[in-house]
């Protein structure tokens, strides 16, 4: 794990240094970074290299710290896995993305022009999967500038799969976003600590003021709470697999905990940075805006909180749900 983390750190930092001060809306796909990920096997770590969620978390969180402009989670954990479930051949190299839609339309599709699109058309009786052939794309982007498009696609010839595959796809996406948000949090905290240590007011570094120390402590506390919930989810999906009820419960908890941390973490970071933190060229902006955007993907915080409440109400003993991951049956 240490070697993997060091590799991701090196690749992510080199990408960030090469793009320092060049961020724009919408962001441009980082082809050089993707080539490095392809050559090192990191782009398809679980689908081709036999790695598990723990290794995937190292890659997702590490690249998120450096605001990597590539669809890393979409390629390996989502589109690549889904194509395998449907027995669909996808290009051996290059980025992939997934378009989750209904009736031939999908919104919020990540990086639709930079990647091969795997369609996941949901309906009441199942999931239809296939490659998007000549889709009509309406461009857009999220708060961080990451491309998010609307796709109109043909549903003819799609492979029908069980509804459970669609549920697992959404769970995989929710887990990935939790890991990535915690990575963005780490970047925001590191930048904020550095800024308050270097910035001097009234003859003292900002970090010497008690109010600033309290804010930093509150920010760190929120991040560690989110990390603990995400680590629980990672342990659950590693031990039981993404399809298991334990994974469903743990990922739901993580999505709630991480989502609730987004506002205080990003707010404190920007308050302590002042005006400089809201400029698009500053790395803080890329970190906080990604966290805010990712928190609403694959289910909002509120929707997962409602789901967590239903899990508690439906349990034979709600106390068991509050203190442990539920077991099958």
Characterization of the model:
- It holds the Pfam family Acyl-CoA_dh_1.
- This protein has 329 residues and is of the alpha+beta class.
- It has two domains: 2-161, no CATH class; 164-323, Butyryl-CoA Dehydrogenase, subunit A, domain 3 (Up-down Bundle).
- The protein has helices at 2-18, 31-40, 53-65, 72-86, 163-198, 210-240, 245-273, 283-294, 301-314, 318-323; strands spanning 96-102, 105-110, 116-123, 126-131, 136-138, 148-152, 159-161, 200-201, 204-205.
- The chain has a seven-stranded mixed β-sheet with strand order 5-6-2-1-3-4-7.
- Strand 1 and strand 2 form a beta hairpin.
- The longest helix has 36 residues, at 163-198.
- It is globular and about 70 Å long.
- The two termini are 34 Å apart.
- The mean pLDDT is 94.
Secondary-structure map:
Elements lengths: L1 H17 L12 H10 L12 H13 L6 H15 L9 E7 L2 E6 L5 E8 L2 E6 L4 E3 L9 E5 L6 E3 L1 H36 L1 E2 L2 E2 L4 H31 L4 H29 L9 H12 L6 H14 L3 H6 L6
Parallel strand pairs: 1-3
Antiparallel strand pairs: 1-2, 2-6, 3-4, 4-7, 5-6, 8-9
Protein name: Acyl-CoA dehydrogenase
GO cellular component, one term: cytoplasm
GO molecular function, one term: medium-chain fatty acyl-CoA dehydrogenase activity
């Amino acid at each position: 794990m240490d070697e993997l983390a060091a590799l991701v750190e090196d690749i992510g930092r080199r990408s960030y240094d090469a793009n320092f001060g060049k961020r724009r809306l919408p962001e441009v796909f980082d082809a050089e970074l993707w080539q490095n990920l392809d050559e090192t096997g990191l782009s398809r770590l679980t689908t081709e290299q036999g790695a598990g969620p723990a290794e995937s978390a190292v890659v997702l969180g590490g690249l998120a710290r450096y605001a990597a402009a590539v669809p890393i989670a979409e390629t390996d954990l989502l589109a690549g896995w889904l194509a395998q479930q449907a027995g669909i051949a996808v290009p051996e190299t290059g980025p992939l993305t997934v378009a989750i839609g209904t009736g031939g339309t999908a919104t919020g599709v990540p990086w639709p022009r930079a990647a091969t699109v795997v369609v996941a058309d949901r309906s009441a009786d199942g999931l239809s999967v296939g490659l998007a052939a000549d889709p009509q794309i309406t461009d857009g982007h999220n708060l961080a500038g990451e491309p998010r498009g609307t796709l109109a696609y043909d549903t003819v010839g799609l492979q029908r799969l069980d509804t459970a595959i669609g549920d697992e796809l959404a769970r995989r996406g929710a887990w990935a976003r939790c890991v990535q948000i915690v990575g963005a949090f780490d970047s925001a905290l590191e930048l904020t600590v550095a800024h308050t240590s270097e910035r001097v007011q009234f003859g003292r570094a900002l970090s010497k003021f008690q109010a600033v120390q309290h804010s930093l402590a509150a920010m760190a506390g929120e991040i560690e709470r989110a990390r603990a919930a995400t680590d629980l989810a990672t342990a659950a999906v590693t031990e039981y697999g993404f399809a298991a009820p334990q994974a469903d419960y743990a990922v739901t908890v993580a999505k709630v905990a991480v989502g609730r941390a987004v506002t205080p973490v990003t707010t404190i970071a920007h308050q302590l940075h002042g005006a400089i933190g809201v400029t698009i060229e500053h790395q803080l902006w890329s970190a906080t805006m990604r966290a805010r955007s990712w928190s609403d993907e694959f289910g909002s915080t509120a929707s997962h909180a409602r789901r967590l409440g239903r899990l508690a109400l439906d349990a034979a003993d709600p106390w068991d749900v509050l203190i442990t991951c539920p077991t099958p049956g």
